[in-house]
């Protein structure tokens, strides 16, 4: 008798579970899902609610797992909705549009273990070399291309691979950017100089590190000189001391002494009282072994009121 009651109870429980599951399926698939779909389409929002297929899958789980299935979905829904029912406490929340500059504490342990990439290459310990290379890549890569170039000759193949990948990507980006800026310059209106003023410092930042082959380096320096000439023709007063100096030194490194001398003379004519007007000519005359012009320029520098830096002071001590 008790067995019949237990079987009857199970059947009743299963029928009740089936009834609840069918009601859940019908209400969800025929009422809730279409209603939310119309609402979200009307608001032109992304449809992100449960669809009819979801209700069907839940129906099957509830039928195959009597009592457990419905209770599981009920508690899941309650836990999901619980944060929305709780009242948020906003007393300590401050809404402000003021920008806050966050100062991060220095990682002293990491900094103590850091060594320059040049030293790591000299020691040539693979573990240290790879660590320094990865930290260099994470930093200002543009300013470290010359050092990364040295890593190409490393005996550690992984370090050389890192260096080759970084250099290849950065140089490709440089070439693409130069082409884009040159096209922008060619499309400028008369008197516009924004493209030249952007391209010259950008090229100088790469060319000063001499990461290209000799032939491409000379070609890029020629592009830089042409851009400087375009800017000079449009408005010579836009040529600053720094731009003059960068053009002079890059031409000097490319051993285009005649063109470098022409820009040195322009620099001296436009900014006669700046240090670069003397140092560029000193480097030029030293490279071309023009002894007389070298000492005449040094004597003129000594007589001028120009404030000299430590490098020029050492040069005067040696040759003066």
Percent helix, as a range, is over 70%
**Can you count the helices?**
15
Overall shape: it is elongated
Element pattern in H and E? HHHHHHHHHHHHHHH
Low-confidence stretches: 107-115, 117-127
- The amount of beta strand, in percent, is under 5%
Mean pLDDT level: 77
Distance between the termini: 123 Å
SSE class: mainly alpha
Cα Rg: 37 Å
- Number of E-state strands: 0
Q: How many strands, which pairing sense, and closed or not: the largest β-sheet?
A: none
What secondary-structure arrangement, pairings included, does this model have?
Elements: H1 2-42, H2 52-64, H3 68-85, H4 108-112, H5 117-123, H6 126-138, H7 145-150, H8 157-186, H9 194-207, H10 214-234, H11 241-253, H12 257-270, H13 275-287, H14 291-303, H15 310-319
Question: Which features would summarize this protein structure in a list?
Answer:
mainly alpha; 320 residues; 15 helices
Walkthrough of the structure:
- The chain is mainly alpha-helical.
- It contains 15 helices and no strands.
- Helix 2 (52-64) packs across helix 3 (68-85), helix 9 (194-207) packs across helix 11 (241-253) and helix 10 runs antiparallel to helix 11 (241-253).
- The chain is elongated and about 120 Å long.
């Amino acid at each position: 008798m008790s067995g019949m009651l237990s079987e009857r109870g199970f059947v009743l429980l299963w029928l009740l579970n089936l009834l609840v599951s069918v009601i859940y399926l019908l209400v969800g698939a025929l009422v809730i899902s279409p209603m939310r779909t119309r609402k979200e389409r009307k608001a032109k929002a992304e449809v992100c609610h449960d669809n009819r297929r979801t209700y069907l899958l839940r129906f099957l789980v509830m039928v195959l797992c009597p009592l457990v299935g419905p209770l599981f979905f009920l508690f899941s829904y309650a836990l999901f909705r619980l944060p929305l029912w709780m009242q948020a406490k906003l007393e300590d929340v401050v809404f402000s549009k003021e920008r806050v500059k966050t100062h991060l504490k220095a990682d002293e342990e990491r900094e103590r273990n850091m060594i320059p990439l040049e030293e790591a290459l000299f020691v040539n310990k693979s573990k240290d070399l790879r660590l320094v290379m990865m930290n260099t890549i994470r930093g200002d890569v543009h300013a470290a291309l010359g050092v990364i170039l040295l890593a190409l000759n490393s005996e550690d193949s992984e370090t050389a691979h890192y260096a080759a990948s970084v250099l290849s990507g950065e140089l490709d980006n440089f070439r693409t950017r130069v082409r884009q800026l040159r096209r922008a310059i060619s499309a400028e209106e008369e008197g516009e100089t924004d493209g030249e003023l952007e391209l010259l410092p950008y090229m100088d930042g790469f060319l000063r590190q001499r990461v290209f082959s000799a032939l491409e380096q000379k070609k890029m320096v020629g592009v830089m000189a042409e851009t400087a000439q375009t800017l000079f023709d449009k408005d010579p007063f836009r040529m600053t001391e720094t731009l003059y100096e960068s053009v002079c030194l890059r031409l000097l490194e490319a051993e285009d002494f005649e063109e470098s001398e022409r820009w040195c003379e322009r620099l001296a004519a436009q900014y006669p009282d700046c240090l670069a007007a003397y140092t560029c000519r000193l480097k030029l005359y030293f490279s071309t072994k023009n002894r007389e012009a070298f000492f005449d320029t040094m004597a003129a520098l000594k007589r001028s009121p120009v404030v000299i830096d430590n490098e020029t002071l050492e040069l005067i001590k040696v040759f003066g």
